[in-house]
């Protein structure tokens, strides 16, 4: 094959290939080729019989199902492919979809007239159950329940539906001037939480609902004295609500409301201060801890709030059992000449709020301090060795000192 000169106008023809999905039976794989123009293509190929393959221009949000369906979106269409027969089903006017593996059901949010409706259906089945006026939905991890919000005639409602029973949805709460968002299920499917957002952030609320006893708890910014003065509950998709394993604790974000945070306008003027710990761009994007979101702990059973992060210790890593949290401040020893400066690390007991120092001048916040999957230990790299810290006994143990190997964390 003769080589050809590649001109700049041909650069856009090159793409990056990424593995997308593997089917549950491990017979099929999908991969995506991404182009700078955004005209991506998904390829699906049988792993044993390479001549069996499909390709879909503009495909995204793909999944394989255990029933040998491949489902993906293109623009506002949902397309369902039977991998055995090649038969395809196309559903139009789709805004969002979800798939419940436990029941093999599709949840499809479709545009209907001036609003939206949620359809519950099986692939290639003509039977459809429709819930009108749905604005947001989320199925429980076990696929048993569906939490969803609706908007009808100016009335917002939050309801729950048992997907394994033919029944009327249970309305949990409703309001007129606010909207519900941020639905988050506990991993056991026994509880979920969500925000109610008002036009004025100071009127925002956080709700927590337990499925077994069907009890609803509400935390309101206005009436809660446990929040920092001038703070309000804030919803941020990056900081999702977290529910602890024992269903007793709910972690959420709040923010101090000041005229600066509410009305701040973009400016072309940059003020570089030689006394700042970080340079202007870094400080602008990451260094304003006074206005940053703060993590708080809410105990719904007694309506108690405990602030966890602060301006002094703004960064957090929760242990897996949600009994403790690791706190630190990346700016503590700035400015300095390393790529990433050191920090002092602290452990806070989330029951007693007792805070104790854990590590001094530790480098590598994201890669060298690692909480264990059980929440009982913390691994960290220091002084050219790996260490294990037992939280309950507060004992540090060097686990690589006896090895005749040089370790590094960079």
Explain what this protein looks like in three dimensions.
- This protein is mainly beta.
- Among the domains are: 15-88; 316-410, no CATH class.
- 3% of the residues lie in helices and 48% in strands.
- It is built from two helices and 33 strands.
- Strands 21, 22, 23, 24 and 25 form a five-stranded antiparallel sheet that branches. The chain has a four-stranded antiparallel sheet with strand order 1-2-3-4, with no helix packed on it.
- A hairpin with a 5-residue loop joins strand 26 and strand 27 (324-328).
- The chain is globular, with a radius of gyration of 26 Å.
- The relative contact order is 0.05.
Mean pLDDT: 90
* Main sheet characteristics: 5 strands, antiparallel
Shape: globular
Our estimate of the beta-strand percent is: over 45%
Oligomeric nature of the chains: single chain
Which regions have little confidence, pLDDT < 50, spanning 5+ residues?
A: none
Q: Counting H and I runs of at least 4 residues, what is the number of helices?
A: 2
Secondary structure category: mainly beta
Quick structural overview:
The protein has 410 residues and is an all-beta fold. The protein is 3% helix and 48% strand.
């Amino acid at each position: 094959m003769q080589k050809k000169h590649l001109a700049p106008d041909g650069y856009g023809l090159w793409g990056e290939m990424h593995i997308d999905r593997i089917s549950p039976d491990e017979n099929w794989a999908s991969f995506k080729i991404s182009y700078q123009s955004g005209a991506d293509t998904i390829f699906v190929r049988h792993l044993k019989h390479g001549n069996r393959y499909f390709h879909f221009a503009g495909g995204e949000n793909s999944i394989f199902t255990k029933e040998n369906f491949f489902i993906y979106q293109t623009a506002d269409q949902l397309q369902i492919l039977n991998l055995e027969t090649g038969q395809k089903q196309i559903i139009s006017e789709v805004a969002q979809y979800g798939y419940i593996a436990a029941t093999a059901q599709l949840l499809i949010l479709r545009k209907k007239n001036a609003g939206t409706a949620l359809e519950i259906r099986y692939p290639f089945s003509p039977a459809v159950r429709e819930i009108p006026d749905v604005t947001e939905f989320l199925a429980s991890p076990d696929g048993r329940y569906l939490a969803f919000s609706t908007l009808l005639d100016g009335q917002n409602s939050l309801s729950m539906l048992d997907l394994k029973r033919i029944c009327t949805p249970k309305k949990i709460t409703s309001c007129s001037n606010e909207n519900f968002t941020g639905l988050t299920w506990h991993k056991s499917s026994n509880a979920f939480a969500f925000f109610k957002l008002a036009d004025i952030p100071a009127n925002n609320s956080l709700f927590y609902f337990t499925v077994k006893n069907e009890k609803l708890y509400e935390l309101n910014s206005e009436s809660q004295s446990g929040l920092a003065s001038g703070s309000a509950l804030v919803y941020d998709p990056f900081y999702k609500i977290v529910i602890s394993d024992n269903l007793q604790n709910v972690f959420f974000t709040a923010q101090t409301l000041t005229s600066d945070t509410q009305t701040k306008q973009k400016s072309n003027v940059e003020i570089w201060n030689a006394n700042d710990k970080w340079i202007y761009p870094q400080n602008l994007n990451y260094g304003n801890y006074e206005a940053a979101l703060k993590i708080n702990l809410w105990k719904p059973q007694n309506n108690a709030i405990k602030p966890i992060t602060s301006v002094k210790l703004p960064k957090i890593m929760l242990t897996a059992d949600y009994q403790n949290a690791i706190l630190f401040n990346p700016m503590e020893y700035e400015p300095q000449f390393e790529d990433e400066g050191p920090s002092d690390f602290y452990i806070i007991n989330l029951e007693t709020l007792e805070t104790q120092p854990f590590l001094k001048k530790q480098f590598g916040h994201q890669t060298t301090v690692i909480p264990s999957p059980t929440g009982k230990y913390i691994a960290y790299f220091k002084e050219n060795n790996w260490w294990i810290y037992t939280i309950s006994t507060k004992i540090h143990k060097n686990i690589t000192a006896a090895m005749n190997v040089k370790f590094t964390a960079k």
